[in-house]
Amino acid sequence: MNVFITGASSGIGEALAQEFAARGATLGLVARRKEILELLLKKLPGKHYIYAADVTDKCRMREIGAQFELDSGGADIVIANAGISVGVLTEHFEDLEAFADTFNTNVLAVAHTFHPFIAPMSRRGRGHLVGIASVAGIRGLPGSEAYCASKAAVINYCESLRVELKKSGVQVQTILPGFIKTSMTDKNPYKMPFLMRASDFASKAAKAILAGSSYRVIPWQMAWVAKLLRLLPNVFFDKLFGNRPYKPRRGQ
């Protein structure tokens, strides 16, 4: 089993790397800082490959995707996990750059990650393309304009691609984490119900991916929350979340 993971140097990506390595997979690990990947490599059983890259660089992602195909003999699972989260308020001109950065990393980079694997997977008639979205993509939350919008885009992009590739044998899967304890969520100034350890999330996510689930919210409790949020009329949703504290903006 050959697994390619972006954003592998910390948080969910690192936990997924540890989970799949423990399952005997050969990994292709992507992050911007090579030295962090080298440290992770020393902790993992088995032989793996590391690639220093910025996921927003589509040419570099195409290059390393092709390289992992050669190094591993062909990817079985590709997990587009790299992402950023920062508070954004559109009223502030300086936040527009953070808005663009969030979309470049959280949305466009998912397509950059999947692109080099679609043709070879389709030729083989199998494979998993996995987009890590978020429950935050279900409804918009105050102060998280860019993050919520970007994760909603990931959900819809993966659905479009799933239907498109269905006849090829390639499975496109969307995983929606709830609150996972990472350095990213440590900065959140609000309550985080059903907070999970990254290792626990990775175990459940791996099971869902290998089982072929097309859409999975983890943990299961957040799946019910997501369903309720979808059904909640705007007037009640606005009252419930209108006074929610904002995630810190860039530089705060």
Report on this structure.
- There is one protein chain.
- The chain is of the alpha/beta class and 252 residues long.
- It has a single domain (2-241), classed as NAD(P)-binding Rossmann-like Domain (Rossmann fold).
- 48% of the residues lie in helices and 15% in strands.
- The protein is built from 8 helices and 9 strands.
- It has helices at residues 11-22, 34-43, 58-72, 95-124, 145-165, 198-211, 220-231, 234-241; strands at 2-6, 26-31, 49-52, 77-80, 128-132, 171-177, 180-181, 196-197, 215-218.
- The strands form 2 sheets. A 7-stranded parallel sheet has the order 3-2-1-4-5-6-9, sandwiched between helices. It has a two-stranded parallel sheet with strand order 7-8.
- Strand 2, helix 2 (34-43) and strand 3 form a beta-alpha-beta unit.
- Helix 1 packs across helix 6 and helix 4 runs parallel beside helix 5.
- The longest helix has 30 residues, at 95-124.
- The radius of gyration is 18 Å and the shape is globular.
- The relative contact order is 0.14.
- The mean pLDDT is 92.
